[in-house]
Amino acid sequence: MAAYDYKALTLDGKSRKGVIEADSPRQARQLLRDKQLTPLTLVEGREDRNRHSSAGPGKPFAATLLSPGLPSKTLALITRQMATLIQAGLPLEEVLQAVAQQTENQRVKSIMLAVRSKVLEGHTLAHSLAQYPRAFPNLYRATVSAGEHSGHLDKVMNRLADHTEESQQFKQKIQMAMIYPCLLIVLSMTMVTGLMIYIVPDVIKVFVGSGQELPTLTRGLVALSHFISHYGWLLLLLAAITVVAITQLLKRETMRLHFHHWLLNASFIQRFSRGFNTTRYASTLSILTNSGLPLVESMKISCDVLSNDFLKQQLHIATQRVQEGSSLHHALKETGYFPPMVLHMIASGESSGELDTMLERTAVYQARDLQNLVTVLVGLFEPAMLLFMGVAVLLIVMAILLPILNMNQLVG
Is residue 46 exposed (0-12), middle (13-18) or buried (19+ Cβ within 10 Å)? Predict the structure, then answer.
């Protein structure tokens, strides 16, 4: 049975889109007619098209690029629904069908029905989810696979649902915290640019016509205003060229490794860069080991979810050391990028035989520490932007008032 995306007309001539399951296109059309719908287009689901077209070279990569993704909020909701229904004892195919029926998003419904079709063919859930790598990341699929192999899919799905929801909430907190600073930046730059282009030239023109010598601050403001008014587009063009050039350079592996190494060691941003990546690594490693996956396999998957390629390279070396018999805390210590507290907690877990529990506590500790760091940075950024605005406006006002004061002195 396959999933088909359809477009049909109702009896009153209205267009309707949706997804329907059938053994063949002919049966799908008949099912639509039974619902008093006139089929216009009928397209086999993306998963089935990828499956049929994956024989040629390069097709799996193309299928990965074309496969639809899911927002983190939607993925968290789907995971929680699946965990609840599996824990209630429903068969997996009924769980997938129920999740598909509960959503109003046609893309989500299409994905879930296609996954269900794959499960009905006898494939595992993890293998079925792999048809949509952008919707269900590597960590997600590996955790589901571990739950299926251990026979505790319900518990693993609940843990995965908790993790997905916590990750979504953390992203949402950061996004909400960044809204006000971003608005301040936009408003500040817009206000200063508007003053320099439209207000300052008209005001300064009066003093230039009087023939008096302008103060240094005023002359500098006039020059800056003239440059922004006539050559401001060059700054925008230069910024765009710089962004494109940096993007192209970072596509080269050597340059990207150097840049990511710099991010981990730069004095101001190293704490944030290290905190974000080590938190992500610890959290992923925690959920995978708690799901019953072997430590080495968990480390390999945890490396792949990192955004910093240099740290990812170092952790691959650490994985090799653990595979050769080294302890986890010693291998991570050799990288030089994990906080001492994290290493101490992992070492304690290894010595007590409760590594899974300590990894979970480590992940919570790291996430809380990163969240506090982001809160402090955002808290410092807001007064910094207000100070920038105050200084900018003060300089503009002084540049305008100084010629007036000089003129009054000459008249006196």
Answer: buried
